[in-house]
Amino acid sequence: MATHILFESASGYAIFEVKLKEEVGTFTRAMQDSTQDLAKFGKMVSLVSFSPFKSAADALENANDISEGIVSEDLKSLLELNLSKPSKKSSIVLGVSEPILGSSIKSALGISCDTSESTVELMRGIRLHASKLLKGLQSDDLTKAQLGLGHSYSRSKLKFNVNRIDNMIIQAIALLDQLDKDVNLFSMRIREWYGYHFPELIKIVPDNYQYARVAQFIGPKESLTEEKLPDLAALLDDDTTRAQNVLDAANGSMGSSLSEIDMLNISAFAARVVSIAEYRKSLTSYLSEKMNLVAPSLTALLGERIGARLISHAGSLTNLSKYPASTVQILGAEKALFRALKTKGNTPKYGLIYHSSFIGRAAPKHKGRISRFLANKCSIASRIDCFSDTPTAKFGDALRQQVEERLNFFETGAPPSKNADAIRKVLDQLAVEEEEGQGVDMADAEEPALPLLEAETPKKHKKKRKSHAMDVDEEEGESVKKVKLSKEEKKALKKEKKKKEHKAKEVTEDEPSKKEKKEKKEKKEKRKEKEPVNRDDSWCAAHSTLKAGYDSILNHLETPPTQDLKNFLGYCEAWASAIVEHHDSEGDGSAQRHSRRARRLPRVAQSRQGRVCKFDVAKLKEMMVALRGPLYEHLDEEVADIAPDTMRVFEEPELLAMDAALQKYAQSHGDPFLLVPFMMSHTLPEYKGIWPPDMPWLLRKLVISYVLALRHPGYWKYSPYGMS
């Protein structure tokens, strides 16, 4: 029996010690009565420790971990603190409500867990009296926590289906199939109903949609005159001959006459059929657009309707992509498959893909082979659509061309292309398009953002080609005859491969020398920039970043981003931190003679940073406007103090000592994940390259822009300049 009980509530974790062990009478009436009575139950268990959750988000995270049987860090620390004593560890048995969680605790901490019925009974009593057993909690607090956690937990579980846009396809194709049945059924009904009055119209207008529109337009056949012929011809695709035939048939019709109430009902029903048919057309266009967005390759291969039916039958595009080609081939023919397995007959050759034009065009003896090949391509297309970052229809077009070649092979014997070659061509086209797009962006930019990464893009595509090259069909190996090469041709191919490898090695040997030359030039330019004469420019750049951040915050306060408050307030914190760190550096010995004037300014920035979590637009704007005077005055005074004329008073050793103090302070203070990206994203274009000073090119271009900034990617969209 359990010696301790782990109780998970909406407010936190609690550990109770079991005092009275009544395992024999667990299900007796007396035991149940004692569980209901707090005075008796309080003698059975006692609270050992209670660890409340820090926030609602923390409670939701722990609830998700418990549902998945994961031991969270909070639970692990609580159990280690209270139950992991060496002397009592062997005798401790922890009662938990979930067997999966118990096994996880056993494997992680070595504590034995119990999920017996006696533990469940004790857990029920603790849950009943939790508000009184847990000290410091009230009944209302626990109820509110349970309500909030229940809503957030349900919302987090529902979020898994929010981005499943293939659900729209499943519903659309189901509704479209139902509308097809309804339109056919209602059209037959309107033909029979209106045919009593005008039976000759059925032969002249055989189309269901046109028949319903014409019946609604004509109404009583006696009302049709020559004046209505132009409008009637418009309903019949501007066919005046058919319109005249309808008029002649109406004048000599053998149908019976109808009353006004009968004609009103027929006209209303015809209008309903017309509206359903028009909605069916709009739904068809919607399904086509959705399929081209979600599964463009599958759409290009099979079409919108068949591809949507496959997704609907599988349940989702992800499920369809996980099916093997043999399963895709017989999707929709499950009844025939099970009947064949039961009777030991022939299994079906195709399911939903039977409606594809490829199987209809194939000869009867080749239908099974082409269906197997088509299912293989459908499986490839669905996986490309499901797992690619940017789905494109080019893969579907290439796969469709392969099916066309396979049909031609069955008829003429011409060998089709291999799957690896077709996929490689598409990858080459996409690589060329990406390079062209990058070329346009690089031409517009003042400076290349990451020239070191340009040589890595073709390597990525080569890896993709290798992975796709392994995806060769067994169907191709069986049906296509291998072309045997002579010994001379094989030798020639080997020589060409050796030449290509030799050229590639020469290129790779030449590349480092070019890079070394570029790096030497950059080092020379940086050495020139490191001269103490130009230190005033880099120091002025630091002041300009603070002004740029102030202007950006004030501009965004005119129309506050209420939908993105977290990132905007984080950006404001970064600005305040930059001010505090900047003025702390002044008191570190680098610029002491004007740091006394700025004693009040860091306090304002710190108070600004402390109030950032309470977003009041009016107060924040008022405080920012009041801060502008002392901030700009102080920064302008600093710029005057570090102007070239003022700095010429100092000798070169003093300037170098100032710069060394600044660099030492920058390396030992501040949060580089917040402060450095802020300074980089607010540097004026004219100061690009000289700020921050003494920073390696790789650090400035790669680490800061692509590593440090990723810690807070949403902050820097509010900065006036981009990082480069």
UniProtKB/TrEMBL annotation:
Residues 451-537 are annotated as: Disordered. GO terms for cellular component: box C/D methylation guide snoRNP complex; small-subunit processome. GO terms for biological process: ribosome biogenesis. SUPFAM superfamilies: Nop domain (SSF89124). Residues 478-491, 503-516, 528-537 have a biased composition (Basic and acidic residues). The keyword Phosphoprotein does not apply. GO terms for molecular function: snoRNA binding. Pfam families: Nop (PF01798), NOP5NT (PF08156). The keyword Nucleus applies. Transmembrane segments: none annotated. Residues 492-502, 517-527 have a biased composition (Basic residues). It is found in: Nucleus, Nucleolus. SMART domains: NOSIC (SM00931). Residues 294-412 form the Nop domain. Keywords: Nucleus, Ribosome biogenesis. Belongs to the NOP5/NOP56 family. Required for 60S ribosomal subunit synthesis. This is Nucleolar protein 56. It comes from Bondarzewia mesenterica. The lineage of its organism: Eukaryota, Fungi, Dikarya, Basidiomycota, Agaricomycotina.
